[in-house]
């Protein structure tokens, strides 16, 4: 059985650790910092066999060099020469076997142009989406445009509803505060805020979330909803789903 454990890094990053049953070999996703990874591996007597990278930002790749020197793992990530250390470059539609599970690679440009997500359709389905889909939010558009990100989120929204979403940052409370403004009459947002506030008070992650839940609380997945469009209309064009998404993203950037 595959287990997933968060390794906190920096102020709000999660490096996800994947482990199969009692095997000492593990995989980590987006190790921006090697130190907390090494500390956990040494403490528990584990060996790093695989690293998954979703995009080139330093807070997702900064620990690669040290981890490669220490453990010589297989490194799977975007086909981007700017990321030193990737030995298995992958693109849309590729499949890789990691920790006994077959993962599909999904291209999700928007936050960056090289951004990919890793999805496995096991029980339960798992999605490691980096900075594409957050709980109640989505990544900023540093390189891509609204049309690209809207299309990328559409791909992810088409995955099974019971998919567990492992985002790379603990942004949920801030995202929910925006969701309360962008979707003000949504009781699911109110409930999610209460649940996530309790989790953070207990120093627990708000992740993973489920795709079904995100379809209820995430305004960036609810651009066709009349309430979301009405709230967004005060901030820009809402004549289409794509235009509503662009308006929401610009509003969120300045929220």
Automatic annotation (TrEMBL):
Matches recorded under Pfam families: HAGH_C, Lactamase_B
The enzyme's E.C. designation: 3.1.2.6
GO biological process, one term: methylglyoxal catabolic process to D-lactate via S-lactoyl-glutathione
InterPro entries noted in UniProt: Clx_II_MBL, Glyoxalase_II_hydrolase, HAGH_C, Hydroxyacylglutathione_Hdrlase, Metallo-B-lactamas, RibonucZ/Hydroxyglut_hydro
Record keywords: Hydrolase, Metal-binding, Zinc
Enzyme class name: hydrolase
Cofactor: Zn(2+)
Any one GO molecular-function label of the UniProt entry: hydroxyacylglutathione hydrolase activity
Positions that bind Zn(2+) 2: 59-60, 131, 169
Cofactor note: Binds 2 Zn(2+) ions per subunit.
Pathway: Secondary metabolite metabolism; methylglyoxal degradation; (R)-lactate from methylglyoxal: step 2/2
Start and end residues of each Metallo-beta-lactamase domain: 12-169
Keyword flag Transcription: no
Keyword Repressor appears in the UniProt entry: no
Reaction catalysed by this enzyme: an S-(2-hydroxyacyl)glutathione + H2O = a 2-hydroxy carboxylate + glutathione + H(+)
Domain of life: Bacteria
Similarity comment text for this entry: Belongs to the metallo-beta-lactamase superfamily. Glyoxalase II family.
Subunit structure as annotated in this protein's UniProt entry: Monomer.
Protein purpose: Thiolesterase that catalyzes the hydrolysis of S-D-lactoyl-glutathione to form glutathione and D-lactic acid.
Protein name: Hydroxyacylglutathione hydrolase
Organism: Halomonas shengliensis
